[in-house]
Amino acid sequence: MTMDRRQFLRNTGLAGLGAIGAGSTIASFSALANEPGDPDDYRALVCLFLFGGMDNHDFILPYAPSAYSELLNARPELLNAQGEQRARESLLPLGAEANPAWALPPEMPALHGLFQSGSASVVTNVGPLLEPVTRQQFADRSVPLPPHLFSHNDQQATWQSSEPEGAQYGWGGLFVDALLGSNASADALAFSAISATGVGPFLTGRQTRAHRISPTGSAQYYLLNALDNARNGGADELYTRLRSHLSGVGASRRHVLERDVASAHGNALVVNERFNEAVGASEPLTTAFPGGGVGGQLRTVAQSIAARQALGVKRQVYFVGMGGFDTHSAQATTLPGLLASIDQGVSAFHTAMQELGLGEQVTLFSASDFGRTLAVNGDGTDHGWGAHHFVVGDALQGGRLFGDTPPPQLGHDADAGSGRLIPGLAVEQFAAPLGRWLGLDEEGLIQALPRLSAFDGGGLDLFVG
Amino acid sequence: MKHSALSTSSWLSSESDGPNCRAASNFRRALSTLRFNRLAVVGLLFALLGSGNSALAATSCDLEPRDKARDSSPADPGFSTRVATHRFLTQATFGPHKDDFQRLQGTAPSAWFLEQLSLPPSYHRPLLDEYLARVDPEVDFTDIFRVSTTTFSFWRHALEAPDQLRQRMAFALSQLLVVSNSGGNLLAVVPQGISYYQDILTQYAFGNYRDLLEAVTYSPAMGFYLTYVDNRPADPETGRMPDENYARELLQLFTIGLRELNPDGTSRLDESGQPIETFNNDDITGLAGVFTGLTYDARGRQDPEALARPMQMVDAWHAREEKRFLGASIPEGTDGIASIDQALDIIMAHPNLAPFVSRQLIQRFTSSNPDPDYVRRVARVFDCGSFTLPEGQQLGSGRKGDLDAVLAAILFDPAVRRGRDSNPEFGKVREPILRFTAWARAFDVEASTPEYHSLLWQAAEPEALGQHPYRSPSVFNFYRPGYSPPGTRAGRMGMTAPEMQLLDASTIPGYANFMTYFVFEGAGEDNELNALEERFDEAGVPFDRKAAAESFRVDYSRQVDLAEDPQALVTDLNELLAYGSLSPDTQAAMVDFIEVIPLSGGGLGDQGRWLRVGYAVLMTLTAPEYLVQR
User: Does A260 contact B488 at a Cβ distance shorter than 8 Å?
Assistant: First the structure.
């Protein structure tokens, strides 16, 4: 079922107000917020999307001496340019066994610590599939493949929604749909899906739409604020009329895009006010985040989670984005800084969740367009397919690598050419345990991930219990 | 070898519904032969092209009978009214200037179009040199003033250049053939690269798409941005492969796209109803070899001018092996320049090219979700390289990809000129940059000093416009041509609406705040000037405080005169900014608002008139009718 603004208003009792009047909206929102209930009943997923296609081969590195020398063999130019940073002694081995097989790069000490202490795991060679594919089947094109493999925008969309560019619904939004059901409060509809970056398909469900926040929080109209402050001085009528104009309501319209723009304006105004009010009333976090970029986004997300009760939400899905991973060139100089930013941002976020007492109630995971070629093009790498990803949170069965990690060589069973990995795990198998943990039942899961049944086992045991 | 046999055979086969343009079928026939007798045919092919086309074009590019029959629209109002004039100029320029109607009244839009074609191009490099001459040469090359110099030149030409049509086309092309100085890359710190690229787009705006692609391919900005500068051949020793970045995006984004298209831009489907992919990764690997061997033409150490000269081909670094892609092949041993020539010709011959590029250009000028018939009419002109203006003048040389003809076909299409209310799905959300430029031009902003407004240095933030010229986050531009906004009416109707990708709870107030600053002349504030002066000092650029305080002042004089009659003021703004599209409800809401502001007294002194105008302008700029161009 789709939900447009008119229905949204009717469901919240706001429709009778006509032009949304100042103050009354906020009051109505609060009155209709979820009953207090159990304050501990809260869970959230955070998707950290690494735009451009993070190089899986430079994120999970071979540590076993024989495999490490295979990597040296496969990427001599790149490893030479990387120097000390990729020397075997510099790597951070994963796991407690005597002979760890895999390692993280030295730019990720915090993620390594979380892995070792059981608060992070790695899922290897996961990517878009329609059904399991072998190397021979790929070469023969004898099984259906996801459309437009190796294309950025299409694989971003496919990761988020199982469809290429133009996709309408993403599994984050469909998760929220399933959890909210048909009697969702206005608050829950507005704030269950929040994006700290541009809005892609991931958080769009049949009724769910993402609320966009920026590192400075939710946006405000300066002019409206100025009139608001002057209301006692006689600007009350001006404030009310400008607010009504900016909310896009009131005019009858025939043009499709004008109607959509007007709806977007109305939603933005009301929801921003409500969000700012709730976050403004919450305790500021003391955890320090790295400035700018992904750190700033994760800080805003953490602050929004801190305001969860005022926002009237019990289940949330967040989307955070970071660019720069399309390392066709200069990978040795650009990728380490990006990996370090991930490491610092994610670790600050984990600390902030512990500060809120929500370490076991919030799980963060990474996603990306695709992995990259093992073959090097001189000083960079090209578009791949399957890739390795991390999950972070205290509810996880941590310290584990899920999935088969192909060796760092060409021509193995999962090589689609030049070391592009044919995924061993479908995105659905990665997403299913995240959805179950968030609270979806099997029926809801199938609605959100219709292709899940094409794969064995219905997903991974990412979580304890 | 199976090498994309499916896609090749399907687009080589003749097609009953295709454009009856013989040049295209010549291409197809020639191309199919190319596979068997390549060397001999290449020369023949170009001979055919060079001679055959122009004769064909005049007849084959006229409207097809079905379009003529359907075109029962009232006559194009041309420049007969203020509203019609402003609507045309909203589609074709960075916004109608306040004096345009007075100047153009009663003339024909096609005369304006021809005049625009004949104006000398306004290039960016002279402006860049002006700015660089002001920067202290000792200053750090990452200084933000330096980084912003190509942005300054963009704003100046967009707002003031007489060759508006050319500048607008160059801007449209910059969103199709994307390079970006986002993220402090080389193109940010060596502005010569973007400037040179801006001038390529300016130069070829009315030229031929094949020539434009060639200039782009050799441009250092693109070579850097899509990482094929210093790209080397495969090396079996080290396992190195040529960089595939440009090969992929050239096909996917710049020329043919991922799916085979009908001549009207819709997807061709196979027997099972599925879209047909135009290429696979083997094509990319094959084409990647073509773009090896190019390097900067540097004359001395750290020569910034290397980014303002075409890249040079070093044949010793060019892949010698056979390059196979799209069912065609470039023989082993072909040198670098010849390889690029042949590759671009092969791509130009692909039947997807015309509908793929035409549809995206339509989206930049007139409509987000163009009717397939409209796409087909424009794509036909693209293929045939010729268009007849309403007054009978012939545009284009008859060569496939002549952009002057294509642009005319987009703007003079009968369905477009039928009027703004004819179709509730026709139109587009105005790009944020164009919303701002339309305001500035409507009030004759003195725009020669964009450097005095820090908001214009970095407009990409969601708190500003969410869009910045030549600074999109990736080669995928700020929005995708195939974007269909989820959860909206347009989305449910399956409409594409690229600019809606920028519309969210952060950017909606962000744009309003950005415009509030300019509409209410926020620049004069002391703290703003102090902050700006600091930036100028860091760059070693002399700061003229008086000029800064007066920069971007607007001419609201006509509106201030109308301020005591709110309806007259609203009518004026409606015609000037929104070509009469404001609904009666919106106009009434504006009148109600304006009337509350006293003309004088009430603590406002004599500011009342001015405030009425400011608020009325801001309300116009934030009305959905303004935000959507139709």
Answer: yes
Residue B120 burial class via C-beta count within 10 angstroms: exposed 0-12, middle 13-18, buried 19 and up: exposed
Q: Which phi and psi (to 5°) does residue B279 adopt?
A: -155, 165
Q: What is the pTM of this model?
A: 0.88
Chain B contact present for A69, CB below 8 A: no
B371 in contact with chain A, both atoms CB, cutoff 8 A: no
pLDDT at residue A9 above 90? no
* Sign of the alpha-carbon dihedral angle for B93, B99, B102, B103: negative
In whole angstroms, what is the distance from residue A246 CA to residue A267 CA? Answer: 10
Collapsing DSSP to helix, strand or coil, B390 comes out as coil
Amino acid making up residue B44: L
**B128: which strand partners?**
none
Which candidate from A74, A75, A272 shows the least CB-CB separation from B509? A272
* CA separation for the pair A209, A193 (Å, rounded): 7
Q: What digits encode the pLDDT tens for the residues B258-272?
A: 999 999 999 999 999
- Between the alpha carbon of residue B184 and those of residues A130, B79, B467, B471, B473, the distances in Å are 39, 45, 16, 10, 11
pLDDT of residue A97: 86
Model ipTM value: 0.89
Output the six-digit token pair for A72.
């040296």
Cα separation, A326 vs A335, whole angstroms:
9
How long is chain A? 465
Dihedral sign of CA atoms B77, B80, B83, B89 in order: positive
Residue B53 has pLDDT above 60, yes or no: no
Number of H helices, E strands in chain B: 33, 8
CB contact under 8 A, A418 and B622: no
Torsion of CA A165, B501, B253, B371, to 10 degrees: 80
The contacts of residue A183 (CB under 8 Å, 6+ apart) are: none
CB A111 within 8 Å of CB A343: yes
Question: Hey, is the C-beta of B266 within 8 angstroms of any chain A C-beta?
Answer: no
Burial of B203 (0-12, 13-18, 19+ CB in 10 A): middle
Average pLDDT, chain B: 88
Token duo for residue A433: 């345990």
Which among B277, B483, B497 is the nearest to A257, CB-wise? B497
Among the partner-chain residues A268, A382, A418, the one whose CB lies closest to the CB of B508 is A268
Both structure tokens of B148? 């912003």
Choose among A154, A168, A245: nearest Cβ to B593: A245
Q: What is the arithmetic mean of pLDDT over B528-555?
A: 90
> For the packed helices B432-442 and B507-519, what is the interaxial angle rounded to 10 degrees?
20
CA distances from A94 to A122, B37, B409, B444 (A): 10, 57, 62, 64
In this complex, do B493 and A256 lie within 8 Å of one another by their Cβ atoms?
yes
pLDDT in tens, A254-308: 999 999 999 999 999 999 999 999 999 999 999 999 988 899 999 999 999 999 9
Is A430 within 8 Å of A390 (Cβ atoms)? Answer: no
Segment B533-541 shows an average pLDDT of 91
Do residues A277 and A251 make contact, with C-beta atoms less than 8 angstroms apart? no
Least confident of A157-166, B332-341, B598-607: B598-607
Residues A204-243 have pLDDT tens digits of 998 898 999 987 766 889 899 989 888 887 789 999 999 9
What's the gap between Cα A75 and its chain centre?
A: 31
B609 near B616, Cβ under 8 Å?
Answer: no
| pLDDT for position A232 | 82
Which residues numbered 444-463 in B keep a CB inside 8 Å of some CB on A? 462-463
Using a 10 angstrom Cβ sphere, with 0-12 exposed, 13-18 middle and 19 or more buried, the burial of residue B216 is: buried
